[in-house]
Prior knowledge:
Order of helices and strands: HH
Largest sheet: none
Low-confidence stretches: none
Radius of gyration: 18 Å
Structural class: mainly alpha
Distance between the termini: 20 Å
Amino acid sequence: MGVAMRRIIRALSVLWPSFITAGVLEMLVFAVVDPQTLMGSPEDPVHLSRQAVYTVTFFVFWGVISIGGWITAILAQEAYRSRE
């Protein structure tokens, strides 16, 4: 297997689970929180539709979870290399 293919597999092994986790987390959060309450301060409200709030929140969740997954993958790879 080539280096490019291993990188793709490693990227997908982090991005796919984080995508699913972000979707589940978003469902849990918005089952409790109304998106209209996340519109900023009363003096300076952010004018976004509910769907825009859902979308932005999903990508924030996905990004944060992906960063955690990448850090875990890097640390696991380093631990595996140090045992060899």
